[in-house]
Amino acid sequence: MAQYDAFSGVYSLLLTPFRWDRTIDEAAYEEYVAWQAAFRPQHLFAVCGSSEMMELTREERIRCAGLAVKNADGVPVFATGNLEPTFEAQVEEIRALEQQGVSGLVFVTRGMCDRPAEMYEYLMDLASRTALPLLLYEFPGMQPHLMDAETYGKLAASGRFHGIKDCTCSLPAIEGKIQRQGDSNVLQANIPYLYDAWCEGARGVVATPTTCGADLFVKMWAAFSAGDREGARKAHQEIILLDQAIDSGFCASAKYLCQLRGLPMQWFTRGKQNLSPARLRSIEVFYDYAKENGIFKD
Fold first, then answer.
1. Three-class DSSP category at 165
2. pLDDT at 259
3. Mean pLDDT of the chain
4. What is the pLDDT of residues 205-224, one digit of tens each?
5. Which of 125, 65, 60 is nearest to 98 (CA)?
6. How many CB atoms lie within 10 A of CB 121?
7. Is the dihedral of CA 56, 61, 63, 67 positive or negative?
8. 267 near 219, Cβ under 8 Å?
9. Continuous segment of H or E residues that includes residue 89
10. 185: part of which helix (H) or strand (E)?
């Protein structure tokens, strides 16, 4: 059985439910967080890309992080902490998230990956402003977003950063970070290479389908951690189906699947996603298939 540290494993991303007028449905959010936590992932990730974090105000982000902590039933909650435009405002953002009781913070690369030395100094300076555990996130919403392996290795070696949400979607690039991860955790965002990356030494997952199928990822990670490679491989096949089912129209599609799974969540977003009747029907067909074949046990 493989041994992993406290920052490895499944990070379940959290969606943000909206009402028809695009205000946050806090009651639905609290029920959703509790539902996600009930699958017992190693962590929850509030205030992330799947949360539509760039469409939320600072006050909404802080509020959602606090509600996630309140309803997580002991599952550690991480939240992105450097979205404000200035360094001083980011420090204030960090303080506000600390007050909400989050277990750790996530720092995005903020489009600085073409300036690795500057990015390293920036991230280390920001890290010095908090004692909370830290993760890195190659957030595609701020490009260029892909961190080179050498810079990641330096940040990991500092002891302040415990992992990275790797969004390279290229196995050689994933392997480059794995070779330099040391005691940290390369956490995979790419679904097609998820099993391969784990076999190469990646130590967890932070990926969009966890928003509506965390139970499948928990099953895959449990099998892999126990040395059951075949069980993990088969679970990965189920996850591939889930990923294909929600890929078009994410994150509206993930919200609709959550609704089918019993949550009082509308599929409205603050972005441009719009699910046609045909798209809604395709998600319904997948859900029926998943239930009939024991993939979902709703």
1. strand
2. 98
3. 97
4. 999 999 999 999 999 999 99
5. 65
6. 11
7. positive
8. no
9. helix 87-99
10. strand 185-188
Question: CB under 8 Å to 173, separation ≥6 — which residues?
Answer: 146, 149, 166
Confidence of residue 3 (pLDDT cuts 50, 70, 90): confident
Q: What is the pLDDT of residues 234-278, one digit of tens each?
A: 999 999 999 999 999 999 999 999 999 999 999 999 988 889 999
Rounded to 5 degrees, what are φ and ψ at 198?
A: -65, -40
Q: Which residue spans within 4-126 are E strands per DSSP?
A: 9-13, 43-46, 77-80, 104-108
How many residues can be counted in the chain? 298
* pLDDT one-digit tens code per residue, 134-175: 999 999 999 999 999 999 999 999 999 999 999 999 999 999
Contact indicator for 170, 177 with CB cutoff of 8 Å? no
pTM over 0.90: yes
Domain 9-213: CATH class, spelled out: alpha beta
List the end-to-end C-alpha distance of the chain, in Å, as a whole number.
29
Roughly what angle, to the nearest 10 degrees, separates helices 87-99 and 116-127?
40
What was the pLDDT predicted at 188? 96
Please say whether the beta carbons of 263 and 251 come within 8 A: no
Helix (H, G, I), strand (E, B) or coil at 108: strand
CA distance 275 to 265: 15
Residue identified by tokens 């200035």 is: 86
Q: Which amino acid appears at position 6 of this protein?
A: A
Residue 96 tokens read as 């506000």
